[in-house]
Write a structure and sequence with these properties.
Layout: E1 5-15, H1 18-29, E2 32-37, E3 40-44, E4 54-58, E5 63-71, H2 74-86, E6 92-94, E7 103-107, E8 113-117, E9 149-157, H3 160-171, E10 174-180, E11 187-193, E12 201-205, E13 213-220, H4 224-236, E14 243-247, E15 253-259, E16 265-271, E17 283-285, H5 323-330
Parallel strand pairs: 1-4, 5-8, 9-12, 10-17, 13-16
Antiparallel strand pairs: 1-5, 2-3, 3-4, 6-7, 7-8, 9-13, 10-11, 11-12, 14-15, 15-16
Bound molecules: fe (ii) ion (FE2).
Length: 342
């Protein structure tokens, strides 16, 4: 199979108050508005090579609108469309997306809308926005968190391995690692990638009956010092840190998590390994090995298991869900903590 996808390019989220969210991303995160169009606000990080990496669309609840990858070539776009259609999934082409050429969207087997494109406008800052360095699309921002670029998205699915297998088989994502509970053969997390990063797509187990949910998405900063300063600036300006700063075992990225005004979760990360191995075999991590917390010395807050839009988890008596999965999702044991029961 030819290499189909190159990298995560932008993400569209919904918010019940688009302007409140946009204001937060501008003032607290340090993104800049590129455009307002059709009720949506398009924002960019200073280091984004294309015009925008975050789109905020109106919606009743915080949710995933779409996650968009750039393909590796025009031919790869056509091939991806063919492969998705061959799975019996409808491919909806469009030629009117802001800053994009021909693109298409489809809803994957676990309910997540994905957008693929090849043609895209590159960003070149001018005037006050121009960098003195030729490779930079814009001069470095030091405002607020000031992330350099979008990094990854983590979604929720009812079958973690099923989703990873589909995106691997159909679109060529490499599966990098799994987290499996100690107590039962339940896969609660995986990371998959289209490039050398440990992941540009994460998948967490979702016990709800709502398909297509998102757990968080992440921006990149260059150094650990930048990340620690981001945590400091957020705290000083009234934004609590939900989890971190710390280091993930899987991927070895430094991380911190916080929420936007719609309650959507954002991660800032940096560091981590690069993996170029084309026939990598995913390793299985147990929670006691610290997949989520490298130092194995603190539990992830249960609030981190909340995905978007908010959904009811299965009741204690509901059929059709593995009892250990249900226990994990109901919070009787924290599937991500190093202690198992968090
Ligand atoms: Fe993440």
């Amino acid at each position: 199979m030819i290499k189909l996808l190159s990298h995560l390019a932008h993400i569209e989220i919904t918010s019940p108050d688009v302007e409140a969210s946009a204001k937060f991303y501008e003032e607290q995160v340090g993104l800049r508005v590129f455009a307002r169009e059709g009720g949506k606000v398009y924002l960019r990080c200073w280091g984004d090579y294309y015009n925008y990496s975050l789109v905020i669309a109106p919606g009743e609840q915080p949710a995933l609108g779409a996650m968009a990858w750039r393909t590796s070539s025009p031919e790869a776009l056509e091939e991806a469309a063919k492969r998705i259609a061959a799975e019996g999934i409808e491919v909806q082409w469009s030629d009117d997306r802001l800053s994009l050429g021909r693109s298409f969207r489809f809803v994957g087997p676990y309910g997540h809308t994905m957008e693929l494109f090849w043609d895209v406008e590159k960003f070149h800052g001018t005037g006050d926005q121009a960098s003195i360095y030729p490779d930079r699309p814009e001069r470095r921002s030091r405002h607020a968190v000031a992330p350099r670029q979008l990094d990854h998205v983590t979604v929720a699915a009812s079958d973690v391995r099923g989703m990873a297998d589909w995106y691997s088989r159909v679109l060529g994502f490499r599966i990098m690692a799994y987290t499996v509970l100690e107590e039962a053969p339940v896969t609660v997390f995986t990371v998959v990638t289209t490039n050398e990063k440990s992941h540009d797509l994460g998948i967490v187990l979702d016990g709800s009956k709502t398909p297509g949910r998102i757990n968080h998405y992440a921006f990149w900063v260059d150094t650990r010092e930048d990340l620690l300063q981001a945590a400091d600036v957020l705290m000083e300006n009234g934004t609590n840190i939900e989890y971190g700063p710390s280091i993930h075992g899987i991927g070895e990225q430094n991380f911190l998590y916080f929420r936007d005004p719609s309650t959507m979760r954002i991660e800032v990360n940096t560091g981590g390994y690069r993996n170029y191995v084309p026939d990598w075999e995913p390793n299985v991590w147990k929670p006691s090995q610290g997949p989520n917390n490298f130092y194995r010395n603190s539990s992830m807050p249960m609030s981190m298991t909340e995905s978007f839009p908010p959904a009811d988890l299965p009741s204690a008596t509901e059929e059709g869900i593995h009892p250990d999965t249900r226990e994990a999702l109901l919070g009787n044991m924290n599937p991500y903590s190093e202690h198992g029961r968090g």
